[in-house]
Design goal:
Elements lengths: L21 H25 L17 H23 L5 H19 L4 H19 L10
Helix pairs in contact: 1-2, 1-3, 1-4, 2-3, 3-4
C-alpha cells in the first residue's frame, strides 16, 4: 500500500469529528437568537402584556396566555437545538431544522397579533432552515 501525499484530511473538532461549517455556526447562532426572541414573546404573552392586538376574525385565535406558553416552549426547544448544532451533535442539524420549521409555523399563525415581531422572526427561521438543510459538497484533496 502506498500513501498519497496530496490527500488532505478534513479538519477535526475536539472529539475527532468534522469541524463545524460556517453555515452551521451561523445557524446555531441564529437558533439562539430566534429561541431567545420566542422566549421573550412567550413571557410577554404569559404576563398578559398589552403589547399584542387581539383580532376577533382570525382562525387561529387563542388566548394570549396560550400563545405565550406556545412561544415559550418553542423558544426553549430552539435553544436546546442550538446547543446540539453548536456542539456538532448528530441530532443537532435535524432537530434545529425541525424546531425552526415549527417556529416558522407558529410565527405565521401569530402574525395578526404582532406582525412587526412575527414577520422578522419568520425570515430568521427561514434562514435557519436553509442553512441547516442545504447540501454540503465536500472537495477532494487529490489532483
Amino acid at each position: 500500500m502506498t500513501a498519497t501525499p496530496n490527500a488532505r484530511r478534513a479538519p477535526e473538532g475536539p472529539r475527532g469529528s468534522e469541524a463545524l461549517s460556517g453555515a452551521s455556526q451561523a445557524a446555531g447562532a441564529l437558533l439562539v437568537l430566534s429561541g431567545s426572541l420566542s422566549i421573550l414573546m412567550g413571557a410577554c404573552g404569559i404576563a398578559k402584556d398589552s403589547l399584542f392586538f387581539s383580532s376577533t376574525h382570525y382562525a387561529y385565535r387563542f388566548d394570549l396566555t396560550t400563545w405565550g406558553v406556545i412561544h415559550l416552549v418553542v423558544g426553549v426547544v430552539l435553544v436546546v437545538a442550538a446547543v446540539g448544532v453548536l456542539t456538532n451533535r448528530s441530532w443537532g442539524r435535524g432537530a434545529g431544522a425541525a424546531a425552526a420549521g415549527i417556529s416558522l409555523i407558529t410565527q405565521f399563525m401569530f402574525v395578526p397579533y404582532y406582525p412587526a415581531w412575527a414577520i422578522p422572526v419568520m425570515v430568521l427561521d427561514l434562514i435557519i432552515v436553509f442553512a441547516l438543510t442545504r447540501f454540503h459538497v465536500g472537495t477532494s484533496g487529490g489532483v
